[in-house]
Amino acid sequence: MKFDLHTHTTYSKHHFWGRDAINTPKEMVKAGVKRGLSGMAITDHQTVKGSLVAKQFAKKYKKDFKIITGLEIKTKSGDILGLGVTENIPDNLTIKDTIEKIHNLGGLAVAPHPFGEFGFRKCVKEKAIEADAIEIFNATSCRGFQNTMARQLAEKYKKSISAGSDAHYWKMVGNAGIICEGDPLEEIRRNKVKIFGHLTPLRHIATLTIKKYKRSIQKRF
């Protein structure tokens, strides 16, 4: 079974763009089904709402398509994914406190793009080892060495691994993820997953940026 464990919808918030993704939860689910995935995690910035909406839609659209609820949380050191949680977790806590809250909600803490520095975004870097798993392949990474560094860190500390497309646009869904036989979160905990995927074409990243720019301009004027 294939799962994309890092995607975003229009519920993702962004300080500049307003919304950091182009498509709704329904559209992203449809894209996941179309790409032949067994399921996907919706990990919007600062909110689980998108994943909850996606889960309800998937039950009607394709019952055996698994939606993993969650969100992407901004800690003082960088981002952490909380997978399998259904409640929001505050931003700007320490990594330790953030992970503790994820665990208290029964979730799995994953360090996404730990070396994916971009603009003013902070990255957890070596602190990624504090999470339950490290995202060793992020399809939207513009620099291949960032994924290589994440993989090397996971291997050095024998950490469980994860992967995802980091899709903010439906055409990116399924570009990366994990392959497993059972429940994806349990398989990650047991470190029994394989990684699949390829880097997202730059034309899709460019299209995403243009779409977000046009939408932000329309709202301002």
Describe this protein's structure.
This protein is an alpha/beta fold and 221 residues long. It has a single domain (2-220), classed as Metal-dependent hydrolases (TIM Barrel, Alpha-Beta Barrel), CATH 3.20.20.140. The strands form three sheets. A six-stranded mixed sheet has the order 5-7-8-9-10-11. The protein has helices at residues 25-34, 49-61, 95-104, 144-156, 184-189, 202-220; strands spanning 2-7, 13-14, 18-19, 39-42, 44-45, 66-68, 70-74, 79-83, 108-111, 133-138, 160-164, 176-179, 194-197. Helix 4 links the parallel strand 10 (133-138) and strand 11. It has six helices and 13 strands.
Please name the defining characteristics of this protein.
alpha/beta; 221 residues; five-stranded mixed β-sheet; TIM Barrel; 13 strands; 6 helices; 24% strand; six-stranded mixed β-sheet; 32% helix; globular
- What percentage of residues falls in helices of 4 or more residues? 25-40%
CATH architecture: Alpha-Beta Barrel
* Strand ordering within the main sheet: 5-7-8-9-10-11
The CATH class is Alpha Beta
